[in-house]
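Justification of computing resources. Each target in the renewal requires a structure prediction run like the one illustrated here; the chain below, 207 residues long, is used simply to show the kind of job we budget for.
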Amino acid sequence: MSVKCYDDAIIAKFRSLFNDDTIHILPVENAIRFTGQLKKDNVRFPMISTTRLGYSIIGSNVNFNAKRIGSFTKRDGEDNNIFAQTIPIRIEYQLDVFTVDQESCDNITRELIFFFYQHPTLLAHFEYGLDIDHNFNLFLNDDIVDNSDTVEHINNGVMFRNTLTFYTDDARLFRSKKQKQGEVVASVEILTKEGIENNVQYPKSNK
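Resulting structure tokens:
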């Protein structure tokens, strides 16, 4: 599904930003358990958890040609033209920062805020027979919520948690469409020395 390609692009960017391979798209309540499994139950903090909250179709931006015909992307090896059909969507995300001290939590949150404002554009790659890239932008919502009092994993040493929400509204649902490359056949009359050769088709059949 197209949406996961945006998830993957976001996770790859966060991993490169923090050099942390424990960042995954998964519900916050499963983050510590999942990360513990990856690290053989030796959970490391600080930790960032990213969750996709859902997505919606931007109906006002739906284009008839884009959803029905699509845009030409390439030709395959069987003389098919490949078109990319698209529908615009908005995807909502939540990001949680878990730390063992307030200062670390604030510092990581600060870096994330600067990241969203300075480097909002990411690149997602889509297969589905298309093999294309799509640029999209991330937008941070204004409120940063301190959810430290809701942390349920005190026994793991997690004492502080900041929650941010962000979205992209220039994402697309992609689907490939194949169309056989057509051959134009013309029926003409040719004047020769012997007279008119009627109903000659070009290109001529080999039969």
